[in-house]
Write a structure and sequence with these properties.
By secondary structure, the protein is mostly helical. It has one domain. The chain contains 1 helix and no strands. The chain is elongated and about 45 Å long.
Length: about 60
């Protein structure tokens, strides 16, 4: 059962990365992120993130 969970987690992370690259191709995610204003986002990658678990398209 643990192997299946690890496998599913890996698949979900892969799909998440693909989805983020599809949503913002060739640019930084922060440019089109819902949380890109003021002090809402406190991630150290900001404003040049190419991967972000909190990314939500505007």
């Amino acid at each position: 059962m643990a192997r299946i969970r690890r496998w599913l987690r890996k698949i979900m992370q892969s799909l998440s990365g693909w989805w983020q690259r599809w949503q913002a191709p060739g640019r930084f995610l922060c440019d089109s992120c819902r949380y890109d204003y003021g002090d809402v986002c406190r991630r150290p990658e900001r404003p040049n993130a190419t991967k972000c678990p909190d990314y939500r398209r505007r």
